[in-house]
Amino acid sequence: MVKICCIGAGYVGGPTMAVIALKCPSVEVVVVDISVSRIAAWNSEQLPIYEPGLDDVVKHCRGKNLFFSTDVEKHVAEADIIFVSVNTPTKTRGLGAGKAADLTYWESAARMIADVSKSDKIVVEKSTVPVKTAEAIEKILTHNSKGIKYQILSNPEFLAEGTAIKDLLNPDRVLIGGRETPEGKKAIEALASVYGQWVPKDRILATNLWSAELSKLAANAFLAQRISSVNAMSALCEATGADVSQVAHSVGTDSRIGPKFLNASVGFGGSCFQKDILNLVYICECNGLPEVANYWKQVIQINDYQKSRFVNRVVSSMFNTVSGKKIAVLGFAFKKDTGDTRETPAIDVCKGLLGDNARLSIYDPQVNEDQIRRDLTLKKFDWDHPTHLQPMSPTSLNQVSVVWDAYEATKDAHGICILTEWDEFKTLDYERIFENMQKPAFVFDGRNIVNTDKLREIGFIVYSIGKPLDPWLKDMPAVA
């Protein structure tokens, strides 16, 4: 029986290993993590992450050929294939601070693998890592090998949260990078044979190590670039009276461009886009390519501009101050169908409003109060460290209340900010909400999901990103 061990029980490791276990019943899959609480959650009825379809897959396989354990060294020693899916946060100090990836957790994982291994291993990069990480890991393992042979593979994940299980069951491609040596090719074939039990052969792509590592960063940079492009257009649409939805639809019908990732919004979030682009910027700078670095840096700058532009619209619309005013925030996760809040635009929007002394009432169907308060008090890159290593966050944000109902959030509010495109926000009883709000009542739709005409008929003053402006807003500045 092939034994697979995955170090790291997070958003990538847990779902990926669960699907491998489901599709490869003859393979034993163990997910290990030093976090006792996280492993306990994976072994409970309440999994530590929300992802549609994940519960069913885990419960079908758990205890049969899928196991979750804190006994890291035992399972690493026994495994034939080791996936490493640990945090790779952005460095906050030292060389490359604010851009380069911090490989502390990766390096300690590699040293532990070298310490406990008694047989040859295939070690698979599953975290998003900078180009040439595999080479560094290879050096650590070979210099501590004690005669044991290691093959390093890069197998980046291309999951979209909210559809991760669907993406894993029916991937666009599975990318496996390895050394172009007989041993490297054999290792690629071994991993390809695991995926080959459910993924068509023509979707399993073999490349060299560096191409696989760079392909992940490139894919995320291209996707983020599309979002920043349409968001840049949204600002121009507001200035000219065009409708960004109509522009995006028109552009998306061009077969060379396609319609995906062309929805204007308050900005992109998630654990990868910003981190990977900053990483790409750093790699370009290190390789003497400042023009290329600046090109990708602009994708991040437009994203930051979009969030600050949204906050400025809110403040300027409401008589240039939100001090002491109750603002309802509907949605805190970075997108619908996930409870993930990493780099969610809601953090920057909420912090911007709190900076003007607003009182916030926040509702999200999948994000709990502790997470929201933690996110609003953590420093920029702290979120990407394991939870037990994150600074303890104070919960005394007096201006923030977290409620479990959209109607409670909006009661007596001066304005509503829609920051996540949850389906339930499209079907709320906005007449009831309007009756219970302060007047004039504002809706700031950061996801373009409400019917602006209908809301205006009810009496709301509505701002939707990239849409023709409400007469109320026409003479108000978009930028402070």
From TrEMBL:
| GO CC list | nucleus
GO biological process terms, alphabetically, are: glycosaminoglycan biosynthetic process; UDP-glucuronate biosynthetic process
Q: Specify whether Mitochondrion is a keyword of the entry.
A: no
Keywords annotated in UniProt = NAD, Oxidoreductase
- Give, as one word, the top-level EC class: oxidoreductase
Task: List its EC numbers.
Answer: 1.1.1.22
UniProt-listed Pfam families = UDPG_MGDP_dh (PF00984), UDPG_MGDP_dh_C (PF03720), UDPG_MGDP_dh_N (PF03721)
**Would the keyword NAD turn up in this protein's UniProt record?**
yes
Specify which residues bind NAD(+) according to the UniProt entry for this protein: 8-13, 33, 38, 86-90, 127-128, 161, 272-275, 342
Q: Where is the active site?
A: 272 (nucleophile)
- Give the UDP-glucose/GDP-mannose dehydrogenase C-terminal domain ranges: 328-452
The GO molecular function terms of this record are: NAD binding; UDP-glucose 6-dehydrogenase activity
Entry similarity comment:
Belongs to the UDP-glucose/GDP-mannose dehydrogenase family.
Q: What is this protein identified as?
A: UDP-glucose 6-dehydrogenase
Q: What is the lineage of its organism?
A: Eukaryota, Viridiplantae, Streptophyta, Embryophyta, Tracheophyta
